[in-house]
Input
Amino acid sequence: MSSEKWCIMASNIVLIGFMGSGKSTIAGELAGLLDTFALDTDSIIQNSTNLKISEIFAKYGEKAFRAHESHLIHWLSLNVSNAIIATGGGMPIFNDVRPMGKIVYLCIGFEEITKRLTPKERAKRPLFGDKAKALELFHTRESIYKKTADIIINASKSPQEVCDEILHSFKPQIR
Ligand code: S3P
Output
């Protein structure tokens, strides 16, 4: 990757993928390369509710969390451009994320994900409590991620390689 700064057009780049696929890390790196900012939908929901994701699930249930996600998609679509958006793993399963921008699916195997997520990281994620259930979820979601994506990236590589691949896939649309 050359050290020159890239410059994206007005559309956001939206990262989707299963828990632990590296969406937040890649969003931060890409934002640096593109001289823009990274937004994380889970962090925005946590900040706006003043609750952790696990607390929202425990106190109000998953349905309430999905309603926050839906509201946020609408808001981001209307108000944000030229940013990198890291989504929660279930966001494209329950809502259409495409109005937010160009969709990049960070594709990675389940075993690799379990190696990456520390017990502390798993504890933050209410839907990763039970490994067998998480695997089932992984299988039901894969085809939805693929159908939603404009581009699919092999996310088991290093963050630099993943960013490189994303930027080159978008090159015709990047000035
Ligand atoms: C979820 C993924 C989490 C978070 C919530 C639900 C899911 O985000 O939004 O716990 O349904 O896959 P990450 O993908 O950042 O872990």
The chain has one domain: 1-167. Residues 1-167 form a domain with the Rossmann fold fold (CATH 3.40.50.300). The CA atoms of residues 108 and 155 lie 5 Å apart.
